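Researcher: For the record, we're logging two predictions in this thread. I'll number them. Prediction 1 follows.
Model: Prediction 1, sequence and structure:
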Amino acid sequence: MMNSATNRLKEFQAEHNAYTKGPLSLLVQLTRMVRAKNLPLDPNDFLTENKGQVAGLGGANLKKILEEYGINRTLASEGGRTSRGNMGLMIKYLEFLNAWHAAEVINFDDAESFWAEQVRDYFNNLPFTLTADPSRTIGASLDELFEQAKKRQKENPGTQYLGTMLQHLVAARLSLLLPPGKFEIHGASVADSTTDRSGDFVISNTIFHCTTAPGEPLIQKCKMNIHAGCLPVIITIFNRVRTALDLATDADLSGRIEVWDIQQFLSTNVNEHSLFDGTARNAKLAEIIGKYNAIIDEKETDPSLRIEFEAK
């Protein structure tokens, strides 16, 4: 997209504070609709019969457009049809397009792509959500949280949301368990697998390795830990525990490396420290999430890694 086009659209977005789901739902669909119209555009052509809403908006339509850009999440179930302020925004956007058209030819492919990217950014900047439901296990709630991270990671190739989340959840739990200064916390971008550090967390003679994909290099690092007289502990996601155990066996290290899944690690701690009292579990879980968010604020630059805790 030409810089002039990007700048025009960014200025419009900033002027009208079009960063939330209602305005974005309208602007994505309206940009698609104007392709079939001759410019200059008349706002009356985009009204329903009763003049009360913007015509053509709908959840299915919005979903179809966003899927063309690889965005498979629901922005607005009604597609912005009932959002307050969309009527006025529609008029302002058409005035903006008319003025732009008078100055130069508009590439609507670029304009639509711009708004789709703003939707992507909107989703990427939302915190993750952990919902604590007393009718379900903590492990099940964590599974749903990790699925959110996997989905966001899939939508943004090259990112490691799940691995970062896992590492800092472990850090949060250990921080609440141990005295201040007992171990050092690093940002996820300086994971031990890419540095000379012996592990993600070193506590006395126990060395923790946090990973979503245990592999041969990690096993070699665990072997070095053992040779140094330390106990290596691998914390991974549930469906990678078997992989880690098999790798340890293949390296003749069976019985010398602890392998824990993150769900059980957190669930066991929460239940033990709440004295198995269901009414106290949420408070303990909320404490972990609060510490996790504090670590994110201090060690990471992406605030979308934060987790919003919801208790039912």
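Researcher: Logged. Prediction 2.
Model: Prediction 2, sequence and structure:
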Amino acid sequence: METPILIEELKDYPFDHITRLNCEDDMLKFKATVLGESSTALIPMTTGILLAYYAGKPEKTYQLRYSQYYQNKVLISLMLSGNATHKLQESIDADIHKNQSFMYAVKEDGKLSLVEYQKAKRFEMASLIFDEEVFLACLDKFFDKDQKKEKAACLKAIYSGKKPGKLFDISNDVNLIIKQILKCRLKKNFRRVYLECKVYELLAHYFQSISCTNQYEIHFSSEDVKKLQQIKTDLGSMEVTDVSIDHLCKKYGLNRFKLTSGFQSLFNISVVKFYRKKVLQRAFLDIKENKLGVTEAALKYGYNTPQSFSKAFYKEFDIRPSAIVA
């Protein structure tokens, strides 16, 4: 994979200077050498809360440096379509897929925080950006004194420094609310009240998805972690016929819960999704280097039909396998 370009031209500008205070016009449209055709919007929602929206199809793989803008802020980042990778030096390297989300608290620790987007892959991401005290006040609105566990689950889900945080799936309701915000053309106080309501509507769906998740604590021994890391390494070369959850449990001596929940917890991706990605990566190289036909590749890599293989291939690489063969 090519070395990503780091975009940091705005790093010397205070965040308030690049925030549009009046967003009643259309979203900004621009074309840059790296970004390609893209659109963005920075929309103040209410006091201490901003919505940042980005969409595009990069001409080159690039990393967007943003930690310098968001000191003492809390971000809820929502991947509406496509994929991205969030990086925080050695602490976090998390792949974010469509309909996934994470929270991130930016501390004044000097660490470089980046979001990486891949060349020629269309993406759409929105982030709610809170002043830290505003975010905590929002939590208090949703959880009363008898809901300490639910509130603690939300705070535990935040990435910060070396704290691992968690990824969560987001519902179509969240996606719809973001679209409604972007299409809003109300003016003045009507707009202010509408956007403030939409913030709490978004948070209601988001906090519920966190507080209603399984609260079981997963405890792993160092041996369990080694087994999960070995599984991750081995999955890249396993034959399709050898891979099933039951087979992996038996081969590596883990129960089903530790394998599935543990893999997700450690690597921020399910074991099934990770394996499918590895299979498609192998298929890509096989087609490119050995001129393998689409039908042959589909059968070799465990797909029932060339059509289902082509669809999964396109979703992963944004190109049809037939285009590589040609």
